Amino acid sequence: QVQLVESGGGLVQAGGSLRLSCAASGITFSNYAMSWYRQTPGKQHEMVASITRAFFTVYADSVKGRFTISRDNAKNTVNLQMNSLKPEDTAVYYCTADGTRQYWGQGTQVTVSP
Predict the structure, then answer these.
(1) SS3 of residue 53 by DSSP
(2) Which residue, among 31, 38, 41, has the nearest Cα to 85 in the 3D structure?
(3) Residue-wise pLDDT tens digits, 8-51
């Protein structure tokens, strides 16, 4: 059974930082690209950041220079360091494992107050 469990969300003031973590089980972690998506009410999921098996990273333009994705294959975890947060970063953040199929976590709420 595949499980992706996100943690680290919460409430922060604009300009602050949060670090999201995602713990994966039930997959061979190193075989998967890992991504973070976010969703706000009424909108589609938006890819925020992705890291390949070879540790190549891709970011949405809206977060470049502020967010950093990393992975630890020994611990089966992927992290998202979020700095200089803005109110428009408020969303539910989801971790995904991307292979022949895509697995999703349950999401964690990030709220950035003005």
Answers:
(1) coil
(2) 38
(3) 999 999 999 999 999 999 999 999 999 999 999 889 999 999 99
